[in-house]
Amino acid sequence: MRRPTETVRDPSAATGSTPKLSIQDVSKTFESSRGSVQALTATDLDVQEGEFVTIVGPSGCGKSTLLMIASGLETPSSGRVLIDDDPAGPPGPRRSVVFQQFALFPHMTAEQNIGFGLRMRGGLTRARKQELVAAQVETMRLTGFEKAYPSELSGGMQQRVAIARALVLDPEILLMDEPFGALDAQTRTAMQDEMAAMRSRLNCTILFVTHSVEEAVFLGDRIVVMSARPGRISHELSVSSDFEWKRHQIEHAMSERSFNELREEVWRHLHAGGTRRAVHDAPDGGHDDAPDDAPGGG
Amino acid sequence: MTGRRTAAIGAVSVLVAIGVWYLATERLELVSPLALPSPVAVADRLVALHDTAYLGETIWGHTLASIQVMFAGWLLAGVVGVPLGVAMAWSTPVRRLVYPTFQLLRSISPIAWIPLAIIWLGIASSARIFIVFIAAVVPWVVSSMDGVTGVNPLLIKAARTLGAGRRTMTDVVLPASLPSLLAGARIAMGNAWTAIIAAELLAATAGLGFVALNSSRTLDTPTLLAAMAVIGLLGMLLSYALQWLSAVLAPWARKA
Amino acid sequence: MTAPEAATVARTGSLTPARATARNAQWAAASVALFVALWWLASAWTTEGLVPNPWEVAQTFWELCTTPFAELTLPGHVLSSLSRWGVGFAWAAVLGVLLGLSLGAFATVRAAVTPIFEFLRYIPPFAWIPLAVLWLGAAQSSAALIVFIAAFPPVVISTQVGVAGVDPALLRAARSLGAGRLRTITQIVAPVSVPEIFTGIRIAVSNGWMALIAAELISGTEGVGFLIIQGQESNNVTIVMAGMVAIGITGAVVTGAVNLLGTRLTRWRKTSETAN
Ligand SMILES: Nc1ncnc2c1ncn2[C@@H]1O[C@H](COP(=O)(O)OP(=O)(O)OP(=O)(O)O)[C@@H](O)[C@H]1O
Ligand SMILES: [Mg+2]
């Protein structure tokens, strides 16, 4: 079932640039005592360097499965995953994962959680590790809570620890599985704004799974819509980085017409599971059909 | 891993263990038969004991002696322990006056009562019933107390509004505390089985523990191991039987 | 916290914690006083020497602390018992956690060991006493072996339960952060299972203590169990009871120490969980 790289349908192949992360013809079937479940049918997805791709879809459509395969934590039943055109192999420091339920180690303090990956990696002096952890504590606004255990932190703080733990390894690719799904509405909004702000600082390619269409539209350069039974990508649409609301807060964006148009379009595809590709430009952008221009600089 | 594979590995592992035991004793004679007889010798002895008397009884007779005393002590502990536990759960004065002393006394191992039981009751079966009682009464009390206090007060209120009246106790409280009580009964049974063996090592003229001790004194290790095997099998059987009983009597309770 | 204690707390909920504790202590004192009174009555109403009264037991307890009986003073017997208990318990804790971890982590080990372990654990530790004496003589080591046999299974089972309960998301997180199999087990699985492991350790403490007393009753040459069986052989109920008091106190102290250790090692849990 392997497909040579040249025949990948993605337009990026046409532009000649190598995708940072390439998921090719990946499918996954889970075998269990109650029979087998096809979580994902043959799926292709390319993510360019610096791109922020959001994935939306109904519960159980295989979003987490796709992300786990991209991370190397789950092996696909068929197909392959490439990073910079090379087989991605087992999980490593190039890819960091932020999990659906935070997955913080309950017996480690915030600081110890953040430093865990550095300790596993080795090759760094103690002082350097401390320095890196301290820097993350600072940027994630966790100062004063370094010695707190996860059970002593609020949901928002726990999530910031989880993100810091992933970012401290300076990954090339950040994989996030509904990182804000377990937060209350208010904290969630704050984290969405924070994520948008953080993104401009990060030199990172991001694949971000979410349940929330607003979140997907607000954060993504490109939105991938998945549908269930069997799990597959049913639609993709690009969001121009020229939209003014991309630089504001999500509350503000929600009252913008272009934002709401996009949101409604994603909803339509979520309900219908269409296959057409669409491109959305800012009203004044005048872009052509090139949804995958690396948007990081925009 | 599939169930079949687990079973296969388990079977192989048991066979290997017995095989090593057999080789080490019967074939290679690595250990003295006085310390560890071969599985064949143990099996032979088990079969022989089935109809020849050892210390006055066949293995069946000794088993029966152990089980009778164990059941008597276990039942007595239930008959005393459950009302005590329920009383402590329902009445604050009773709980305040009895519970601290109960906690104090339970810190003394049941086994430590054996010398006292011998002085007071000699080596009659009443001494062993007493020891089994001491060992089994604690889980009976704790589980009935937990069971009753653990009943959701909303359930009792709901029953009252539905007009249950006097039948609240029999129709709501008892069934709701049954899972806890059955769990306690099972722990009590395990304790009772442990205690009867200990008591028989010190104060008995029959029973599996008595057989174990006497055979070891005469260096008759095949009989000792045969007795241990029967003790283990019966303990397992009793545990499974009570587990089955719990599932039948309180099918709504999850296995603890 | 057990349910009845929770009920007490709920009922005294309107009081300040300090006053509630004081009131509970008053009731506990009343309860013990009532027990002592009943005991005194029992000793007055039975044949002389059958049930000594609490005062006689207390006096004997004090005398045993200073004058040796069966070679040693009471504290000497307690220390002797504790040393054997310590050896057996330490082995049981270390090997039990190791076996429990491997049973939890490796399905093949689990499949191979479970049937044998399941059978052996149904043989009460006391049934091993004759065999242990046969193997090791009436020496210190046979008692330590019995403690081990009694304390090992609860540690194995609770560790296995703890490992099975570790959130798989934590394992995935550890792997994605670069932890190999061994480090995942030592740094994530084992510490996260500590609360369950300690449930087993607590049972192991009292099982081991009980088994040690039994071993000393049957084949001891010193220790508190030996002391009370010597008391029985000289038909001296007062000595037996004084020994039983020592057994109770020692058991409670050891359990308390282990509980303290358990609480310290699981400080990372929510306070509502540790109150268990
Ligand atoms: N380990 C597994 N074994 C068996 N089936 C699984 C396993 N993991 C996932 N599945 C099944 O695969 C399908 C996709 O699961 P997945 O977790 O990827 O969905 P999801 O889109 O992330 O859902 P959610 O939004 O609820 O997180 C589901 O039907 C699920 O039941
Ligand atoms: Mg998911």
Automatic annotation (TrEMBL), chain A:
Residues forming the ABC transporter domain are: 21-253
Name the SUPFAM superfamilies on file. Answer: P-loop containing nucleoside triphosphate hydrolases (SSF52540)
Q: Quick check: keyword Membrane in the entry? A: no
User: Which stretches of sequence are listed as region Disordered?
Assistant: 1-20, 275-298
Bias kind Basic and acidic residues: ranges: 278-289
* One of the Pfam families matching this protein, by short name: ABC_tran
Annotated protein name in UniProt: NitT/TauT family transport system ATP-binding protein
Source organism: Haloactinopolyspora alba
Automatic annotation (TrEMBL), chain B:
Pfam families, A to Z: BPD_transp_1
Domain (ABC transmembrane type-1) spans 63-246
Regions that span the bilayer: 7-24, 71-92, 104-123, 129-151, 195-213, 225-245
Q: Might you name a Gene Ontology BP term for this protein?
A: transmembrane transport
Primary location group: membrane
Write down the membrane topology: Multi-pass membrane protein
Keyword terms of this UniProt record: Cell membrane, Membrane, Transmembrane, Transmembrane helix, Transport
Annotated localization: Cell membrane
The family this protein is said to belong to: Belongs to the binding-protein-dependent transport system permease family.
Q: What is this protein called?
A: Taurine transport system permease protein
Organism whose genome encodes this protein: Haloactinopolyspora alba
From TrEMBL, chain C:
**Where does it sit, as one GO cellular component term?**
plasma membrane
Q: Where in the cell is it found?
A: Cell membrane
- Native organism is Haloactinopolyspora alba
Which superkingdom, per the lineage?
A: Bacteria
Annotated membrane-spanning segments are 27-45, 85-107, 119-138, 144-166, 209-231, 237-261
Name by which UniProt lists this protein: NitT/TauT family transport system permease protein/taurine transport system permease protein/sulfonate transport system permease protein
- Alphabetized Gene3D superfamilies for the sequence: MetI-like
Task: Mention one GO biological process in which this protein takes part, according to its record.
Answer: transmembrane transport
Q: Which InterPro entries does this one have?
A: MetI-like (IPR000515), MetI-like_sf (IPR035906)
Lineage, broadest ranks: Bacteria, Bacillati, Actinomycetota, Actinomycetes, Jiangellales
List the membrane topology term(s). Answer: Multi-pass membrane protein
SUPFAM superfamilies associated with the record: MetI-like
List UniProt keywords, sorted A-Z: Cell membrane, Membrane, Transmembrane, Transmembrane helix, Transport
Question: Which residues belong to any copy of the ABC transmembrane type-1 domain?
Answer: 78-262
UniProt lists the family membership as follows: Belongs to the binding-protein-dependent transport system permease family.
Q: Name one Pfam family in it.
A: BPD_transp_1
